[in-house]
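Appendix C reproduces, verbatim, an entry submitted by the partner laboratory led by Prof. M.T., so that reviewers can inspect both the input and the predicted structure.
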Amino acid sequence: MLKKKAVSSMRRAAAAFNSYEEDGRTTAVLLHLQHAFEMLLKAGLVQEGQKVFDPNDGKSFGMEKCVNLAGQHLTLTPGEAGTIRTIDALRDEEQHWVAQPSEGILYAHARAGITAFDDILARVFGERIADHLPVRVLPISTEPPKDVQLLISSEYKQIQDLLAPGHRKRPDARAKIGALLAMEAHVAEGVVVSQKDVDRVEKAIRAGKEREQVFPRLSSLGLEVGGSGLTVTVRFTKNQGAPVTFVPADDPADAAAVREIDLQRKYHISAGQLARKLGLTNPKAFALRRYLGIDADPSCRHEFRFYNSVYPAYSDNAYTKMKAAIAEGDMDAIWAQCRPGKPQTA
């Protein structure tokens, strides 16, 4: 049932993309694309015997949690995860406020979405999207995909023009800023577009900041295009980008659009929960964390400070690394080498 819902929404997204009707087209494409992926990931997770409901409130998981679980159980690639997260962020911005991605950016994400959907469907269920979706309605475009950096630069130039004195196009400019902020989900987890972020970006653009200064994260984004015509495949890639400076969401600085994500969403596992998820005792989980250097890895561990108290928490990345180490390593040897109280040599 979940897979059927996923395919139905993808068909709707394709039909909306190819529609001659412009009214509400972008909204329809993003809503159906996002729903297609959420249903597909849940279908795969259920097939793998994974729980998709929160035991506390009984509600099914949202997209971010599904993406994290799919990385663990459905071999979701970083590129696929980034594409899904960005579609989710664009949909969120469009559904709850307004986003105005250009036709080129919409096409790139629609076609990358089709490619990712097809790859996941084949990997998890052994089926192809062509088995369910007539070729005649696959997303096509009279404007072939460009280099994604050119698309971003073109969009940034449009925002500058819309914010120019006398144009009175500020709402349109802010909608496009929201779309570019959503695209940061390609290269970072937990991206949520806030009006404070949009405010800071608008201020930076009005101050004459260059695109690379305002959106440093997007400088690492690439686009890999293969095939031709209806068989074209589009995948987003991540290259080495410019150095990034993180700022809190309420920081008044206007230097860049890069902001801290909701850290409690990323680092949501306590040490005890991590041990239980891995089927280890707390001391053995400690030994494994020490062996892998988990506590020194900022992508795995973060310390939350409340007044004089410190609460360490771990990310899904920590769980993935530790689970792989259990499968590949010798826990007895790890315990002997890194158990609590045993001095560690440099």
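The beta strands are 221-226, 233-238, 267-269, 301-306, 309-315. Additional entries are available on request from the coordinating office.
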